[in-house]
């Protein structure tokens, strides 16, 4: 689509004061801005134009043929792979470390790890904010990786030096079962939490930037999508400040009608370029009409209005886009609840099972690593098998749209947690039948832990479809100067899933425990007397409800290219009426 100017307020022969009919004025408002200049799409949707490729110092790149591409992407991939290995290794081992070394109960250990996971993901919005507003993605990743490394060093010292852990003498398995081991001192737990959350803070700056930074290395305008391009992007200013300005300006003008005689039009800078660095202009849409009040230009606003009173159309549309994106990542919170529960609770299951492969005995804490391994293997099959086959069936470049893939993942996550409930019911019945009712730390030699691989593989498949689809969806649909904030939505959903897991655990423990009748909680420390199968089936019901909400939200969502086409069609109709 070429660059062309739509009638600006001063060029209009007909003023808004003459538009008495509300329906017609609503259509006319869409003409009071300049259409975006370099508007392009990736695979038929998503706006990524209006930006200038720069180097690490923020200077424009003269020769694009020698930068970016797969070489740069592989370095980014290597950094992220190392970060993910440390992150998940820490996550799955911390539960066992806090139980066996720090002598904390399984329940509090699981909740501590859930909170660590939640903080590291929810606070990633800070990393996205700094990347978009001030630092850029490269320097944000570099700085927070250093913080992340400092936290990991602190945790390593905690595990290596006796001064940081309680006395381990006379703390055998029986003492652990009875809870009679020497507890950790308050300062020891304080140190552990400080370095743990320092690590979480470091991860918060990496996650929302790395996928977008990797995607920046390729030029989506190329037919083969592999043209070398370093799109270090210039920071586009504070996105949260722009959001606040829209909300404040819309509130100040909430009582101003769209047909007011002093109305000049919807405010936008003249010319081809947006007022937001790193962003192209965004066409006006009719969604969330109350926010359009922020762009209503009145004569009293003067020639140099405050951004807290008058915002551009592009700025208003940025806020609209962020709001419209929320339901989709929100629907993935339940998937993250399931994954979090598998990482922490399945360790208790694995302690009662045989982890031998022939003569090789795997540590129990290796079991939750299998979801990550399955994700890696399934990704290979995904791009080599699923995409080509489904592309022939659907004709879609990716085999299925982003939202379709998210839906497939959510459905498979329901199967994974349902299977978890079925297997746990069998495992608990087997333990009681063979006399292991009170030995929840003793493995049963005839029952293999690798039955857990079924639920791990299913949740891995769910992750591949949902998270990959979600990240692509957020990257393509987010505003140009808010790509990292869009990616942070996925991390926030993951963090809220971790917090939700802790909340659900606490509620279930409180509701299902009755000391007067000596009724144990569904999630009691002795898993052979607990009701983990009931808990998994509860999660299955919640997941089904969540899936229904996703279907409703996905059905209502309109891709930005669809809205742009509708706006263009409306404009053509209005121009035809005027002529």
TrEMBL record:
Biased composition (Basic and acidic residues): 1-10
Record flagged with keyword Transmembrane: yes
BP GO annotations: oligopeptide transport
Keyword flag Transmembrane: yes
Compartments in which it is found: Membrane
Pfam families with a match to the protein in the record: PTR2
Region (Disordered) location: 1-23
Gene Ontology molecular function: transmembrane transporter activity
A Gene Ontology term for the protein's cellular component: membrane
Record keywords: Membrane, Transmembrane, Transmembrane helix
Membrane topology of this protein: Multi-pass membrane protein
Superkingdom: Eukaryota
Transmembrane segments: 85-103, 115-135, 142-165, 190-210, 325-347, 367-385, 406-423, 449-475, 487-508, 534-552
Family to which the UniProt record says this protein belongs: Belongs to the major facilitator superfamily. Proton-dependent oligopeptide transporter (POT/PTR) (TC 2.A.17) family.
Name used for this protein in its record: Major facilitator superfamily (MFS) profile domain-containing protein
Source organism of this protein record: Gossypium raimondii (Peruvian cotton)
Lineage: Eukaryota, Viridiplantae, Streptophyta, Embryophyta, Tracheophyta
